[in-house]
Amino acid sequence: MTVGDQVVRALKGLDGRRGRVSERAVDDDSPAALVEQPLGIPETTAERIASGDPRPSLEERYATLANYTALATAAANTLVAQLLLLPSDAAAAIQSATKQAQKAGLN
User: Fold this and answer.
1) Cα torsion for 78, 55, 2, 21, to the nearest 10°?
2) Percent of the chain with pLDDT over 90
3) Under 8 Å between Cβ of 106 and 60
4) Which residues, in sequence order, are bridge partners of residue 46?
5) Looking at residue 30, what is its pLDDT?
6) Phi-psi region of 4 (alpha: psi -120 to 50; beta: other; left: phi over 0)
7) Could you tell me which residues come within 8 angstroms of residue 95 by beta carbon, excluding any fewer than 6 positions away?
8) Domains of the chain: which residue ranges?
9) What is the mean pLDDT of residues 50-68?
10) Which of 12, 40, 22, 36 is nearest to 92 (CA)?
11) What is the residue-wise DSSP string for the chain?
12) How far apart are CA 15 and CA 62, in angstroms?
């Protein structure tokens, strides 16, 4: 599993309203090959409604790129604390997650 995969898995367990990582975050066995690929999540609420996608848009989930980066940082730090990510790899994982969100249109 790559560093990026670990961060994506941890981010899947984040609750943006509380800024916590759920216990299932790193145990999720769904595919996590999203690093450096589009998220496939609508960028805005209007886009989500127009497409009929039931998932919250990026702006609904995270509001700002700064918030997303803070949550990615929390997820990476959790993985470091759980000895699932080396501290030296955390910065690269955070950068990768932030770059992915930027490509998806989060500002």
Assistant:
1) 10
2) 32
3) no
4) none
5) 38
6) alpha
7) none
8) 3-103
9) 89
10) 36
11) --HHHHHHHHHHTEETTTTEE-TTTTT--S--TTTTS---S-SSHHHHHHHT--SPPHHHHHSSHHHHHHHHHHHHHHHHHTTSS-HHHHHHHHHHHHHHHHHTT--
12) 10
Confidence of residue 58 (pLDDT cuts 50, 70, 90): confident
pTM comes to 0.56
Nearest-angstrom CA–CA distance, 60 and 71:
14
Q: Name the residue with tokens 């497409």.
A: 51
Q: What is the pLDDT of residues 9-45, one digit of tens each?
A: 666 555 444 444 444 444 444 334 334 445 577 878 8
By CB atoms closer than 10 A (0-12, 13-18, 19+), residue 50 is exposed
Q: Which amino acid is at 97?
A: A
Integer angstrom CA distances of residue 14 from 17, 51, 106: 9, 25, 17
